[in-house]
Amino acid sequence: MTSNPPPVNPVEIARIALKRLAERGLPPTPENYSQFYNAIVTIKSPGTKTSDELQHAWQVLCKLDDVLAEARDTTAQLLESLSESGESMAASLGQLHHARRENPALLDEQAHGTVTALLEDIISSTSHLHASVSSSHDDIVSIRESVRHIEEDLAFNRKMLEQDPLTGTLNRQGLDHLLALEVKRAQRGGGKFSVVLFDLDDFKQINDRFGHLVGDQVLVHIANLARAVLRETDFLVRYGGEEFLLLLPETDLHGASYVADRLRLVASKTPFMHHNRRVEISFSSGIAELHDDENGRALVLRADEALYRAKHTGRGRVEIAE
Ligand SMILES: Nc1nc2c(ncn2[C@@H]2O[C@H](COP(=O)(O)OP(=O)(O)OP(=O)(O)O)[C@@H](O)[C@H]2O)c(=O)[nH]1
Q1: Does the CB atom of residue 277 touch ligand 1 within 6 A?
Q2: How far apart are CA 62 and CA 45, in angstroms?
Q3: Do 140 and 90 belong together in one domain?
Q4: What is the domain extent for residue 269?
């Protein structure tokens, strides 16, 4: 038996979350937003289905936006031609009055009255039609504006689902899509692509010694250092609790080892300080370069195996995957 997706409308949730933030006067930071979002949707961790649903909602909205844009253009053209018709009928009426004044014998009184009334009726109907098309046009423009806002909410919402609230890096959910994309890009273009998976050593001891909050700050610190050593085209992902993954396009094993060494150097030169005490941070890394015939998951798995070897041969080391 297949179970139906939960009756959750992500756009509505996003709206409510933003409203709650506004009501409390809180800034819409990723942390604040995700706190309210999760509270409303009561999800423990976002499932892939949610991401698919968001994608679908996004596509529907884009189509709706196209249809609305067409309707807006059509009504604008209709308004223009109604205005022109109104003006030309008003001009005809003016000419009729003028002709009658100049040559009263042209039309007898009754025929003139009938034609005038008819023209006035048509002018009045055209003017009503103009007013009603004009109001529909305004409605379409404002609906389109709302669709735009919903699209923005959805984009924000999607970003939140793919972001780790603590460090602001991508999370596992964001990784899947991106990894597949980067692997395809590298394989199509014949370029190199490498990943570095690193895991903080004895992180439990940091938590135990300094407390969980300090542990959190250490994770943020490391994420910031990693960002600093990466190129703009690289990506940083929080892969697990104290485990991060670097995606390095256009990079071979040599380049990836250089990045891992640089991060180690920067971390040793920029220690995390807690009450003037240096918190020693070391990490182990596994590095793998993409093979021609493998997918992203297999690549990360090889990096994971290399990391496992690094951990079990002394920690603080870098291992290269076969
Ligand atoms: N403060 C904090 N701790 C976390 C977070 N996520 C995971 N952890 C902690 O990270 C620790 C990981 O412990 P272990 O898996 O034993 O690994 P480790 O102590 O780093 O040891 P090795 O990896 O074997 O060197 C656990 O204590 C988790 O509670 C987080 O978001 N914040």
Answers
A1: no
A2: 27
A3: yes
A4: 172-320
